[in-house]
Amino acid sequence: MSETKSVLALRDLASLLGRSPETIRKDLRRNPAAVPPRLRIEGTRLLRWRVADVDAWLAQRVEGLSHD
Question: What CATH architecture applies to the domain 2-66?
Fold first, then answer.
């Protein structure tokens, strides 16, 4: 299924953002706006993110910086 290739695990997101997995976990609890919206898989506690959501979240932040 090609859809699974468009999903990131915690360590993948951490690597992409240049942050530690522990920091991302903390941000999910304390400051959810500091991380891309996560994919919730019913019946699991897996931390996963869709690549499309991460790309959109990053693009929104870059655009916000360029309007200074």
Answer: Orthogonal Bundle (1.10)
DSSP H/E element including 8: strand 7-9
Tell me how far apart the alpha carbons of residues 6 and 52 are, in angstroms, rounded to a whole number: 7
The answer to whether 9 touches 20, Cβ cutoff 8 Å, is no
Classify residue 64 as exposed, middle or buried by CB count within 10 Å of its CB (0-12, 13-18, 19+).
exposed
Overall pTM surpassing 0.90 (yes/no): no
Report mean pLDDT in 10-residue bins for the chain, 68 residues.
75 96 97 95 94 95 61
Q: What residue ranges do the domains of the chain occupy?
A: 2-66
Where do we find the tokens 């992409």?
16
- Contact by Cβ (8 Å): 30, 47: no
